[in-house]
Every structure is written in C-alpha cells, then in structure tokens.
What we know:
Largest sheet: 4 strands, antiparallel
Order of helices and strands: EEEHEEEEH
Radius of gyration: 15 Å
Strand order of the largest sheet: 3-2-6-7
Distance between the termini: 30 Å
Number of strands: 7
Strand content: over 45%
Structural class: alpha+beta
Amino acid sequence: MKYFFLSEGWTTGRVWEFGGLWNELAWQRKPHIRRLNLSITEQGETLWLYQVEETVLMVEVKPENQAQLPIGQVVLKRLITAEQVIEHLCSLNRQLM
Length: 97
C-alpha cells in the first residue's frame, strides 16, 4: 500500500497507474483509495491520511468547493510508504514533547 496526507476540504480526482490514467473498464473496478481515521494538524490545518493500492502512481486532488480557492487541482506524484508515515508521525510526536 501507499499513502498520502490530504488537507481537510480537498478530495481525490483522476488516478494514474503504470499504463496511464486509471481505466475502470480494463481494471473492471475503481482504484482503492480510502481515507483512514487518522489525521494530523500542521500549521492549524487538518491533514487526513489516505491509503491507496500499490499500483497507483499519481493522484489528482482538488478542493471540494473550488469557488473558494484559487488552486484548481494538484497532482500528487510522490506517494509515501507505511514506514514513511510512521516516521512522520513519530517526528511530530517528538516535536510536541
């Protein structure tokens, strides 16, 4: 599995795999993307942890209410491993101590 943190109020859009954009007809299903029940707060912003399957290379994210933000969309190209998530969470815990 791969992971990424996504700001509250943002949602996922298109998904890329090795062959290009995720093709639901070829895969016969949508990609597995799941928001976990774990969030962190950085600079007053809530970031939720999402889990995606290993075949996912990139994920488009965009604000749920696009009228309020000047940013239209962002493509996450560097998804992280479970070990990197744990390292990040541990570093946040050390900063709080």
